[in-house]
Every structure is written in C-alpha cells, then in structure tokens.
Write a structure and sequence with these properties.
Elements (H helix, E strand, L loop, with lengths): L4 E2 L18 H8 L3 E5 L2 E4 L1 H20 L3 E2 L5 E3 H7 L10 E4 L5 E4 L4 H9 L10 E10 L14 E11 L2 H21 L4 E5 L9 E8 L5 E5 L5 E3 L19 E4 L6 H8 L7 E7 L5 E7 L6 H5 L8 E2 L2 H7 L16 E5 L7 E5 L5 E7 L8 E3 L18 E15 L1 H5 L3 E3 L5 E3 L1 E8 H11 L1 E2 L2 E2 L10 E5 L5 H17 L3 E3 L6 H11 L3 E5 L1 H6 L1 E6 L5 E5 H7 L9 H9 L19
Parallel strand pairs: 1-29, 4-8, 16-18, 18-21, 28-29, 28-30
Antiparallel strand pairs: 2-3, 5-7, 6-7, 8-9, 9-25, 10-11, 11-22, 12-13, 12-22, 14-20, 15-16, 15-17, 19-20, 22-25, 23-24, 26-27, 30-31, 31-32
Helix pairs in contact: 1-10, 2-5, 2-10
Length: 600
C-alpha cells in the first residue's frame, strides 16, 4: 500500500515561462516542472518530485551494487590534504579541487572523489588474502570548482554520485571485479531507460591502466563519440585515428611552387585544386623543456591535444605566439619540415608514414613544397597518433567508416592496479606471508547527471516523458470537474484502489481548469494519466493516456474493476496494471526487447 500524493499538498511550483538562464533542455524542463531550483552558479536544490526521481535512481544503483557483492558505506566529504599529498595528487589534481582551511590553518578539500580516503581505510583494516575481494561503495555529494558551471545538472559544482572501490589480490581478480561492475553499469543504464553506449575512455586525473565511459546518446551531450557497426566505440578524446592522407599525383620529387595568399590549408587546397587530405598541416610550439617542435598532421584533420599530452617527448606542448614564431625563424602559414631552423624538432601523425611525398610549407612566405620526400628531404623525430577522429575515418578494428555522435557521460569504470595502494603503501599478506599491494578498481555513476540525461533523451514540446522505472510517480488521476461529486468520488475511489495495490498514484485535486491540469501533467511527464470527467462518468469510462507514446484509450469502469481485483492472483499488481491495462512498457522506452519489470 502506498499513500496518495495530492497535488493540493504537493510542493511543485510550476512555471509558465522558461527560466532565462536555462542553457539546456533538462534544466529548463526540470525547473519549469517544479522539480529543481537554482540556488547559485552550479548549485541546485531538489524539490520533492525531483528528489523522488533521484531516490529511484539511487535505489536502482544500490540494487545493482548489492547484487554483485558491494557493501555500502559513507565516507567524509571533508578530506585532509595529507592523504592527497601522500598519493601525489594534491598539487596535480587541478584548480577544480575545492580547498578549505580549518581554524588550525590545516588544509582540507571537499571531496571530488575518494581514492585516497578509501585506500587509507583499507590499509589499516584488511591484512590477509583470505579477506579478499572486497568492494565498497557510497552515494553522496561530490564537489568540483568548475570554472564555468553550465548545462544544469550535467556540469555543476555540487553533484550526486555513486563511487565504488574494489580491492583484489591480483590483476586477474581486479579484471573480474571490473567486468562485474561493467555489466552492472549496463543494467543500471537499461533500468533507467537510457539509450546508451560504452566507450573507451581516458583515465584522466584518476589514473590507471584502462577505463570505459557509459554515455547516454544525446545531441546535447558534451562528449563527442566515435563508433562503428562492428561494436567498437571510443570517446573522441582518445579514439585511435586511422586517417587516410593522399598524395598529389605526378609529384614524386620536391618542387618549390609559388602559393600567394595561401596561409591556410583551405586556401592552399583550393589554389592547388586538390582535396585537403593531400596537404599537410603544421602546428608549431614548444614542449616542457623549451625545445621548439613542429607537429605535422594530414590537412583534413585537427590535432588532438589530449593524445599529444600522453607522448613523453611532446609533454607540455604549447603553441607559439606570433612573436615566438618570428624569433624562432618560422613563417606563419608556410611552415614545413624541409630546411627548418636549427634545433627545431619534427613530430608527425603516424598516418603520414604512408605518404612518401608531402605538400608542405617551404618556410618562406608565399611558397610551398610539393613532393617533399620523407627520409630524403626531411626526417621525423617523433611519430604518434596525434589526430582527432572525424566522421568517415576508418575503424581501427574492422576498417569500416566510423560514425560520430554526442553523448552525456553517466558513468565510468577504471582499472587502477596498484597506483594508489603503492603510493599509500596499502598491502595485504599473500599465501606465503609476503606483503603485496592491493589491485584496485574504482567506479562512478553520476546520479544527478543520469536524471538530466533521461530528460535530454525523453521530452517533447509539451514536457518530459519519464520512463516508469524512475518517474516521480506511476499514475496521475485527473478529475476535471472538482465541483461534480460523482467525478470527485470516482477519482478518489480509483486513486485509493491503485494506491492499495502499490501503484504510486497522484491525484490532481486542485480546483483548476482542465487545460492547466493537462498541460502540467504533460510538463511533469507522469507516465500514465487517467482522466475522470463528467461525460466519462456518465458513460462509465476512464480515459487513459500513455505519456511516452501519446496513445489514448477508453477503459470501462467494469474493466478497470476487474483489472485491479487481484483476489487469488499471484501476479505483481503494479506490473500488471502498468504493463497491461495502461500499456506502459516497464523497461527502456521504445525498446521492445527490454522487458524487465519494476519488481526486478
């Protein structure tokens, strides 16, 4: 039995107009529907309906974590700087870390993540291989001092996250824990109704040997994703680029040609009458030790700075200013690898290894070389995967053209290995009584981000369309004439019967016009809307609307009575009512193959 939620007593102040500072659909609709309120830049208050959604997502996460042996704990939000200094991350995590000082002038941070705290806990408690594996998790607020908080709940300064940490005796055990968490994350995405994709990802500030991100596909997503029909997918930040540079025909030896006003790749390709893939782009900069380096990539591609940062010889690379270019002896717009000033190193994307003759700048204003021959006219000091992928590049796994899409990251899993256990000297005793470092994994789900991602995927011009698994309630009953005793009586009776079955039921008992009730019901996105009107009472019928599909049907009072009479029946009443009577799909919307019920 559940309690009826009455709109007259519900704190859900709806807005007629969009908030002026809403920069994305989810924050616009959640604010208008009275589910969240902005408190400050990157800070939000969850109102009752929004909090109901958050709690349902948390419950799905808890069920999956508990199902793979996770144990819930709660760690402090305030973390001492000493632990972060011990791991070496205090000075490297970056300006997003929120740092505070207590009255004794001791530094602490508001936790952006908890690798140090959990490792410190375990190193003082777990001592034997017999106690492993162990997986601990928590659900709490995290803090990151975003320079420009935006996109509502998706890039805020305070957000709700589930973070879990696994401890194993060896890499084989770590891999098993990682796979179990990977599978659980897929089930979480499914049960939240998301159209999602796992992609290869960079380990970033967390570190480790491997990582996968879980993205909800959405045009509003911050992340660019590359994928192929073979199943390969990766965040564009790290996706291996298989570029296809081409050569200009009939230029097998170096030739200097005049190229007036061709200081860009677009102008050069147009002047020569060739595709941009037949040209080579130059980017000049300096690495950490001050050495000047010119990086060459195919003319139809851009440099990927994250990939570049992972190449030891190019660490700290920063583009030169115009003054630095001039003082180094480089000519902006006409830089090439032939006859470079002394001391300038050359790096190039690995795809250019397959191009024997390049079309490049001649290091002289208004001139380019055509047919500059690799290893004859110039050499390359550093090769690497330096290009950003783009639509149509070849898949690194099967060679078919890749597709680009956008996604909202809702979760990420990491193989940490002994990165933190070694730094904090967290060890256990193996079977031979020898100390070994724990093999760790860490795993995060953005709970508040998931709520926003669902809204980004499921909405229309009228409002939100909640998957029933995480909707603030299952059913909203809409009596249209509050002064009509029969209408009110039938609505009250039906609401009580459904609540007694365990169906989460809202009764819009406000004395408002029918149009307002209909528009707000669609704005909030109740999965099932049951209209009780004067004409319906006279005809002994209810009108039932499926918000996800927009389908409407009339159900007689007698059919409804039989549907909610579960005397002697073993079926789940919530599942039966929502799935059969209201025709609401209980799993991922619009995905017929997914049939999990709320009871699971």
């Amino acid at each position: 039995m559940t309690q009826i939620i009455r709109m007259t007593r519900l704190y859900a102040p709806a807005l007629k107009e969009d908030p002026s500072d809403a920069d994305i659909t989810s924050v616009r609709l959640l604010t208008r529907a009275g589910m969240i309120r902005k408190t400050g830049s990157g800070l939000y208050t969850y109102l009752p309906l929004g909090w109901r959604v958050i709690k349902k997502i948390e419950e799905i996460v808890r069920r999956e974590m508990d199902g793979i042996g996770g144990q819930e704990i709660m760690m402090p939000i305030l973390q001492p700087a000493e632990l972060w200094r011990e791991s070496g991350r205090w000075g490297t995590y970056g300006p997003e870390m929120m740092i505070v000082k207590d009255r004794h002038n001791r530094e602490l941070c508001l936790g952006p993540t908890h690798e140090e705290v959990i490792t410190d806990l375990i190193r003082n408690e777990l001592r034997s291989y017999k106690e492993l594996p162990v997986t601990l998790y928590q659900i709490q607020s995290k803090y990151r001092d975003e320079i420009r908080p935006r996109f509502g709940l998706m890039r805020s300064r305070e957000f709700i996250m589930k973070d879990a940490y696994s401890f194993d005796a060896d890499t084989e055990g770590m891999d098993k824990s990682y796979q179990a968490m990977y599978d659980a994350y897929g089930r979480i995405c499914e049960q939240c109704g998301l159209d999602w994709r796992p992609v290869e990802a960079d380990t970033g500030e967390i570190g480790g040997s491997g990582s996968t991100e879980f993205h909800a596909l959405a045009d509003s997503g911050e992340a660019e994703l590359a994928s192929c029909t073979c199943g390969w997918a990766a965040n564009a930040e790290i996706a291996e680029c298989v570029a296809q540079p081409t050569e200009i025909p009939d230029h097998d030896s170096i030739e200097k040609v005049e190229t007036p006003d061709c200081g860009t790749i677009a102008k050069l390709a147009d002047f020569l009458g060739v595709p941009q893939s037949s040209t080579v782009k130059a980017l000049a900069g300096k690495v950490a030790d001050g050495t000047p380096v010119v990086i060459f990539v195919p003319g139809d591609h851009e440099l990927n700075e994250l990939k570049l940062s992972h190449i030891k010889e190019l660490a700290g690379f920063e583009l030169m200013t115009d003054d630095e270019l001039q003082s180094t002896g480089l000519v902006k717009g006409f830089i090439g690898p032939v006859h470079l000033p002394k001391g300038v190193k050359v790096a190039a994307d690995q795809s250019l290894k397959n191009v024997a003759h390049w079309a490049v700048g001649a290091n002289e204003y208004g001139y380019h070389f055509l047919g500059a021959t690799l290893d004859t006219d110039f050499t390359v000091d550093v090769w690497g995967d330096l290009c950003a992928v783009k639509e149509g590049d070849l898949c690194p796994h099967c060679g078919e053209p890749i597709k680009m899409s956008r996604g909202i990251e809702v979760g990420q899993v990491f193989k940490l290995g002994d990165k933190y256990s070694r730094a904090l000297h967290a060890t256990y005793l193996d079977k031979q009584g020898k100390e070994q470092f724990f093999q760790m994994g860490c795993y995060g789900v953005g709970v508040s981000r998931t709520m926003a991602a669902v809204v980004e995927q499921y909405n229309d011009e009228y409002g939100m369309k909640w998957p029933v698994t995480i909707a603030p309630a299952h059913v909203c009953i809409l009596p249209l004439q509050m002064k009509n005793e029969q209408v009110v009586s039938e609505a009250e009776k039906l609401a009580q019967q459904l609540a007694d079955l365990g169906v989460e039921t809202v009764l819009d008992d406000r004395n408002e016009r029918a149009g307002i009730k209909f528009s707000e019901a669609d704005l909030i996105g109740w999965p099932v809307q049951i209209v009780v009107g004067k004409r319906g009472v006279e005809n002994q019928t209810f009108e039932i609307k499926n918000r996800m599909t927009g389908e409407k049907q009339d159900v007689t009072f007698e059919a409804m009575r039989q549907a909610i009479d579960f005397s002697g029946r073993q079926e789940d009443p919530v599942k039966v009512f929502l799935g059969r009577i209201a025709n609401v799909q209980l799993g991922k919307p619009d995905k017929a193959a997914y049939t999990k019920s709320l009871a699971n």
